[in-house]
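Below is how a single chain appears once it has passed through the pipeline. First comes the sequence as given, then the structure the pipeline wrote out for it. We keep one example in the README because the format questions we get most often are answered faster by looking than by reading.
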Amino acid sequence: MMLPGDSPPPFIHPQLGTETARDGRTIYQSLPRPLASCAAIMQMCSVKNEGNVLFIWRAIRMEQERFSLEYIDYDDVDLVAALQAISIYILLRLSETNEEATNFDVPLTHTMLNVALLADQRIFRYGTLSDGRIPPWKDWILAESLRRSIILLFLVNLFFDILSSLPYDDCDAGSWLLDMALPSVRNLWKASSSVEWERKYIARSNDLSAGKELKYCDLLNSRARAGGALDSWLSQLDDFGTLVMAAASLTD
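Resulting structure:
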């Protein structure tokens, strides 16, 4: 995950942080700073041992503290990238057994929640499939990346109750998850150019029944599932959609 030569995890779009020409050619590509730092930390994790585990988690804590101080001033790309980096750190924390190294669970979770709340306030400017317009590809990538990152963290909370470490209840995580739009279908997420993406976006918009955007609660509604409302989405799952479907099946 995030190592050179590896595909990014399915909630991080490979075009995040790129600049493209009108014909879809990539002019340049560079990771947003939060993800670039995360990639460097992941390289250290690939050779983690008893001698460097404290150093690795000190680096992660420094990133968490930096996010906590700076996130309010981030542009939308860096804000989404920060949330994605925190998501990776939380996934690492779930498998880390060295309690001395990971003695900042509450600050990490608190920062994650603050970044997610601010990012969620910004997502609506980029439009949805049901609002009748075609957003720029880069805007869609940003909104979809944010949506997937938030869904991932809600699923982690669903199974590991990470928000219970906070001294207060900032949100009803369960209700928020139910109202989240489902991740995009595979061919939209995998589109390699703006031209290809726009063609598939229009086709997907036309597939939606009466402009309805499917939400996570639809996966838990057995009547809707039996009625075939989700057939098109289910037939085009990517790795992340498969994860979401599996989580819904376990909690249904």
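The beta strands are 18-20, 26-29.

See the next section for the split statistics.
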